[in-house]
Amino acid sequence: MVQVLNQIKDPEDMKQLSEPELEQLCQEIREVLIQTTAANGGHLAPNLGIVELTLALHLVFRSPDDKIVWDVGHQSYVHKLLTGRYEDFHTLRTYQGMAGFPKRSESPHDIFNTGHSSTSISAALGLAFARDLKREDNAIVAVIGDGALTGGIALEALNHAGNENTDLIVVLNDNKKSIADNVGALSTYLTRMRTDPRYFRNKEEMEDVVKKIPSIGPQVFKILEKVKEGLKHLMVPGVLFEELGYSYLGPIDGHNLTELRAVLDNARQLKGPVLVHVLTKKGCGYEPAEQNPGLFHGVGPFDIKTGKVHKSEGPKTYTQVFSDTMMQLARQDERVLAITAAMPDGTGLAPFAQAFPARFYDVGIAEQHAVCMASALALEGLKPVVAVYSTFLQRAYDQVFHEVCLQKAPVILALDRAGIVGEDGETHHGVYDLSYLRHLPELILMAPKDENELQHMLYTAYKQEGPVAIRYPRGKGQGVPLDQVLQEIPIGQSEVLREGDDLLLLAIGSMVNPAMEAAKQLASQGIEATVVNARYVKPLDKDLIVEKAQALGKVLTVEENALEGGFGSAVIELLQEEAVDCQVRRIGIPDEFIQHGASPILLKDYGLTADNIASVAADFVGIKKALTKRGNLKLAPFMGNVKVAFRGEK
Ligand SMILES: Cc1ncc(C[n+]2csc(CCOP(=O)(O)OP(=O)(O)O)c2C)c(N)n1
Ligand SMILES: CC(=O)[C@@H](O)[C@H](O)COP(=O)(O)O
Ligand SMILES: [Mg+2]
Description:
Blueprint: H1 11-14, H2 19-40, H3 44-48, H4 51-60, E1 67-70, H5 77-82, H6 120-133, E2 140-145, H7 152-162, E3 168-174, H8 185-195, H9 203-211, H10 217-226, H11 228-231, H12 240-243, E4 247-253, H13 257-269, E5 273-279, H14 287-291, H15 318-332, E6 336-340, H16 350-355, E7 360-362, H17 367-379, E8 383-389, H18 390-393, H19 397-405, E9 412-416, H20 433-437, E10 444-446, H21 451-463, E11 468-471, E12 495-498, E13 503-507, H22 512-524, E14 529-533, E15 536-538, H23 542-552, E16 554-562, H24 567-577, E17 583-589, H25 599-605, H26 610-629
Parallel strand pairs: 1-2, 2-3, 3-5, 4-5, 6-7, 6-8, 8-9, 9-11, 10-11, 13-14, 13-16, 16-17
Antiparallel strand pairs: 10-15, 12-14
Helix pairs in contact: 4-13, 6-7, 15-21, 17-19, 22-26
The structure holds thiamine diphosphate (TPP), 1-deoxy-D-xylulose-5-phosphate (DXP) and magnesium ion.
The site of thiamine diphosphate has 24 residues, from loops.
Keywords: Isoprene biosynthesis, Magnesium, Metal-binding, Thiamine biosynthesis, Thiamine pyrophosphate, Transferase
Family: Belongs to the transketolase family. DXPS subfamily.
GO molecular function: 1-deoxy-D-xylulose-5-phosphate synthase activity; magnesium ion binding; thiamine pyrophosphate binding
């Protein structure tokens, strides 16, 4: 029963609470987190682990004047609950409800939008410089996880800030976990600090160390006396963060509110960059999440009592089929390697990692490095597959261009979560890859209509001697039978699924089956569509598209990608180059960001359904009939006839 949390309309309200009330608040927050994510899904374990730390931050600092930046932002639920959003929290991650990440539009306490990892220190440094330039006097705090700290941009900012004289606090939330176990030398270093008793010098030892510093020692000691409580947390000089220019406080027990408050209070008083190292337990307070923080990192609806995630029946996911095919290829060819940027489970590479540990690389949250490293491996004759979410490959665009395509390196980019991903929302939808990849020379770019085609495409990619990207959606496949023998799909060859005289429905990837459905609906209205599964965005099946467009005069392209520069754009460019006299309409994502919510709702919103394809197609063909009646069959020059339609627009 919530008694304290509902009284907190602003973090300042917490400052009146007694210690037992604060304890009660922590408990209530954990209950609300569990109940809400059990119903809606969400990032439970990261939030359970950061309850006391978030309370301490809001008790010590004065948000929003003091600015707290949450890295990734998946752990900002507690912050949301403490900043006046308890009443609406039940709408978390639902359509038109509260976002699962910080949003400036949602609250003045959300200082910087996040979702993609490792930006908090850069953002905080920018905020700190702005404060200095404006001669303001507020604290700036970046809260970053040990996983996010493996990201290149975090290290770039850490490097920069350490050499600057500006006041900035970096709170490192170290729970030893990224989504899976954290990786890398920094992570090993942090683990050593957690466990090696030499790092836990007591206060007396510290006093001795400081006093012994020639000439300045006693002075420094006097200053440190002022921050007495924090003194016992001061690390010996020489540790990494001190060397980088930070005053290091830690490691601190991240579940001890009193200690956290004392140390953060000290951090607030120190000048220059400060790093507060906080040790937390991911999933703290809910046994199933403590036992399996990976599963409860980002979890679907589950049963609170048993901790069992609600089963969703149905066919294998695209990810599972990708995973199985990788295993098959790896068994046949020892040159096949798998690379992930901190997502072994999400990308389906965990079984590969188990079976072929020597051929598996988890590079941390380092997409740029993953792609560049893959290029070098490929140039050495190996067969690297970088499995990455479409949205996160955006981080490595330049590596795809510079390291992979320019050198014609036969790297396979397996882009999972392409298209609308649902509840994670605008930062995570993978709706730009066709646009940001298709203009790169040398790259072959494909998208399967179903999971069976995915396995053949992966095999086809494996057979190539240049770079290939395959994009496929989040979630279940179509439930089609999977061929036992992998086959190459000729490069640039599309597939005619249905012949009709009234228009060409030209679809790519996840939109092929809705297009076929639409064709069936149209047939019942007397409209016969030719349906083509394009398969390749690059190279396009030029001859077939030109031939059909010329013959039918009307082309409706359908894609789960931004219209700007996407598949439909490629088709328009082709038809214009070939001076084909026809009309084109496109269905896809318009020039706006897509919010969060269940995927079927969002797909419907954007007209990415069989019903809407049928309705746009019927309208398209209807125009032709009207023109014919007026005896005006002559179509204007091609470009003038391009009509973009989405959301059933007439
Ligand atoms: C650029 C980018 N790559 C990958 C991800 C996926 N991702 C989200 S959270 C996360 C792990 C973060 O670990 P950490 O920062 O330690 O936070 P924790 O969940 O442990 O609190 C990953 C890999 C992402 N959000 N952004
Ligand atoms: C915060 C983050 O970026 C990931 O945890 C992401 O939410 C995972 O998404 P999937 O659930 O699609 O694996
Ligand atoms: Mg972590």
